[in-house]
Amino acid sequence: MKKRTKLKTALFLLAAATNMTYASESGVPPKKGQTPLDVLECFQRGFDSYEKRISKLEKDNQAQQRIIKEQDMLYKGMIVYNSVTNEAQGEANTVVFWQISYHDRFKVKGVPDLRFNYYNPTLYQKGAATYIDVVEDLEGKVAIMMKATAEGIDPKTMKMINPKFLEGDKGVFVSQFASGWASYDYDGDTFDTNCAKVFAKITQHYSNCWHYNLGSDADLPNPDWGPHLRSQKAHSLNLKTDGSKFTRVRRITRYVIF
Question: What are phi and psi of 108, to 5 degrees?
Answer without folding.
Answer: -75, 135
